[in-house]
Amino acid sequence: MSTVGIVVEYNPLHNGHLYHLQQSKKITQAENVVAVMSGNFLQRGEPALADKRARTEMALRAGCDLVLELPVAYSSQPAQWFAYGAIAVLDASGVVDSLCFGSESGELASLQQLASLLAEEPEAFSPLLAARLKEGLPYPSAFTSAAEAYLREKGLDEHAYSLTQPNHTLGLHYLIALRKLGSAIVPYTLRREKSGYGQTEITDTKIASATALRKLLLGESGSLDQLAAYVPESTLAILRRETQAGRAPIHWESFSRPLFHELLRQSAPSLSEFAEVSEGLEYRIRGVLSELPEYSVEALLQALKTKRYTRTKLQRTLLRILLGHRKAQLSPERLADGVDYIRVLGFTSRGQRLLRDMRRKAKVPVVSSAARHDSSFLAMDAQAAGVYSLAFRDAQPSDALRDFTLPPVRLSDKMV
């Protein structure tokens, strides 16, 4: 059985995602789709609108056969480690033949060429990157600038690679990860249509970015009805159910109290021990706390934001503090080791057959509960799920143990 892997967040799953899913099967001629999906906290350092179980169900009803979790150790990282973790999960599964990701151009050749140049971080590239990081550029900007300079030194046209486009950069890191892992997975790319990554305005009657949809829903006059034209019926129904149950919509302000509790009890030196806290950010955090007009995460982000400290960087930093993630837990050496388990979030009847195959072929243990495997990364996932449950309207202690007590989401073929 041929199987295509996709990397998703589905926050929430919308018509553009549905197009990508369907086209991924078409262009790879795959029979099955395996999605590796971020859990409750996402790449930009934001909490997911709905929890990973709800978004897993969205994925299965849209046509995914098997959904695997991208550990929180990787899911809230810059593109380099986010991509590496996702590819590590797909490669370790032993059942994924191809990868299909979205890009602005839909052209793979130039990205493949650049990936072959950068996969081993050549001696000429490393100092270019280090110099830009020393200037205070955030990693994505530093990487792009260094890559463009490296291409010029090689006599290549940096404009041909479109590295200022976010999907191109992420796609490049997928390709680099494939090479670093020595993976046999064959990559494909699909041109992103009608709505750009992170586009905040809606310019089409059926396609809108997840960012624009969240902005619409979380606005003062936002409602689920306003999303109807842009998401599958199944997504809308799941969001309605989760909203009625008090488990959605979740956003940063949902964690205001636990976050400020943690910030107020930490000294500047102790803050410096958390992952993502660098370049004196610990002193800036302590310095602005007493100047805030209210205990608001948005107010804190606005007070902290500078050219050096972008919003995304700050969100990731605050998330690591909220979740208690220390630098030692997320060192480059530990991240480079890859995953030591695969967590199954959900499957259909077809996916169950694929799962049986995966259990025989996977390079690491396949687990369905946080209680079934001893791993520092899996423990971090379970702890993150517990913290996320604090945002539920009627949170119960049992909600914090969902990773231990609830089985994977399972849908029969008739339900999809």
UniProtKB/TrEMBL annotation:
Pfam families noted in UniProt: HIGH_NTase1
Q: Which UniProt keywords apply?
A: ATP-binding, Cytoplasm, Ligase, Nucleotide-binding, RNA-binding, tRNA processing, tRNA-binding
User: Record's PANTHER family?
Assistant: TRNA(MET) CYTIDINE ACETATE LIGASE
Name the EC number(s). 6.3.4.-
Its localization reads:
Cytoplasm
Name of the protein in its database record: tRNA(Met) cytidine acetate ligase
Q: Specify which residues bind ATP according to the UniProt entry for this protein.
A: 7-20, 102, 167, 192
Q: What class of enzyme is it?
A: ligase
> What InterPro entries does this protein map onto?
Rossmann-like_a/b/a_fold, tRNA(Met)_cyd_acetate_ligase
Enzymatic reactions: cytidine(34) in elongator tRNA(Met) + acetate + ATP = N(4)-acetylcytidine(34) in elongator tRNA(Met) + AMP + diphosphate
Q: Could you tell me what this protein does?
A: Catalyzes the formation of N(4)-acetylcytidine (ac(4)C) at the wobble position of elongator tRNA(Met), using acetate and ATP as substrates. First activates an acetate ion to form acetyladenylate (Ac-AMP) and then transfers the acetyl group to tRNA to form ac(4)C34.
| Family statement | Belongs to the TmcAL family.
